[in-house]
Design brief:
- This protein is an alpha/beta fold and about 300 residues long.
- It has a single domain, classed as TIM Barrel.
- The chain contains nine helices and 17 strands.
- The strands form five sheets. Strands 5-4-3-13-11-9-7-6 form an eight-stranded parallel β-sheet. Strands 14-2-17 form a three-stranded mixed β-sheet, with no helix packed on it. A two-stranded antiparallel ribbon has the order 1-12.
- Helix 7 packs parallel to helix 8.
- The longest helix is centred in the middle third of the chain and has 18 residues.
- The chain starts with a strand and ends with a strand.
């Protein structure tokens, strides 16, 4: 397996924000652009929806918008941020599966037409507050191999997903597809295959139960691509290769059902390596009259960074 080594931290004297007041977060926007380009070239069939919650700095979101990115939004504030930067509403996907009815209505009133759900209650809210919207159902995944599994918080079982997608049409909605998330900071490229397999099974089941009348045309593979911290991670190509292989196997080009349009929702992968917190030690205090090696004491640093871009 090809791995990516963690980067070595540069000395403070050479840090690009060394002359700025502390604390602050220095963002290297060139790194964000590089990551976006690499992902687009490595996973060519996927439309990249940046997960705005990962870092909603307007300069960062604006950069990605100029590069052609779409956006995964999770709140009215994120909807308004993207639209305020000139992003057309048809480039927004409301990926939060737990939304207030008023938040759905706000996004709908501003032109957003694509929403996620993973429960019957959420489906009915969407039917009331966003009539005619295109909706996709989020599937449960195991989260194995991820630093932060999400299986206890989001998603529903495959049989329930099929039920809900078939219920969506009579409610006046457009059930367009499925989504999943393999877990945040996913280190195991093999975890994409079972998630794609589950989505393909639900796609076939919906088609069968609808007697060929309902063909799911969207597959949102979510986020999960890892960033570099202190440990080695698989190279991007390990993940995208596994994704493409899974898609080819479970949604073959000449299969009985058309291959769905693919979305990806990276967040951490695009921005984590682009930010460094610049801070300083304020005091080093010891609580006993002993040598500095004593464990009784504390180090205080400036916290709650503001943001600076480069």
């Amino acid at each position: 397996m090809t791995t990516v080594e963690p980067r070595t931290t540069r000395p403070v004297v050479a840090f690009p924000g060394a002359d700025l007041p502390t604390p602050c977060l220095v963002l290297e926007l060139d790194v964000v652009a590089e990551r976006y380009t690499q992902l687009r070239e490595s996973l060519t069939e996927a439309v990249v929806h940046y997960a705005v919650k990962a870092n909603p700095h307007p300069e960062l979101v604006g950069l990605l918008a100029r590069l052609g990115a779409h956006f995964d939004v999770a709140s009215p504030a994120e909807v308004d941020l993207c639209l305020g930067l000139g992003v057309p509403p048809d480039r927004l996907s409301y990926g939060n599966t737990v939304k207030k009815r008023t938040d759905i209505a706000h996004a709908w009133s501003r032109g957003v037409r694509l929403f996620a759900f993973d429960s019957r209650a959420e489906l009915h809210k969407l039917a009331e507050a966003a009539p005619g919207a295109s909706v996709f159902c989020r599937l449960l995944t195991s989260g194995t191999g991820a630093d932060w599994p999400l299986s206890r918080k989001f998603g529903c079982a495959p049989d329930m997903a099929a039920d809900l997608l078939l219920e969506a049409g009579p409610l006046g909605l457009d059930p367009c597809g499925l989504s999943f998330h393999v877990g945040s900071q996913q280190r195991d490229p093999s975890r994409w295959e079972p998630a794609v397999a589950s989505a393909a099974a639900v796609t076939r089941e919906v088609y069968r139960r609808s007697h060929g009348q309902r063909v799911l045309r969207l597959l949102n593979i979510g986020g999960g691509l890892p960033a570099r911290y202190l440990e080695q991670i698989p190279a991007l190509g390990e993940h995208t290769g596994a994704i493409t292989a899974a898609l080819d196997h479970h949604f073959p080009a000449h299969g009985p059902l058309p291959r769905p349009r693919v979305m990806a929702e990276p967040g951490r992968y695009l921005v984590a390596d682009a930010g460094v917190v610049h801070t300083e030690v304020v005091p080093v205090s010891y609580t006993h009259r002993t040598l500095p090696t004593t464990p009784y004491g504390y180090v205080a640093v400036a916290a709650a960074p503001s943001r600076r871009k480069r």
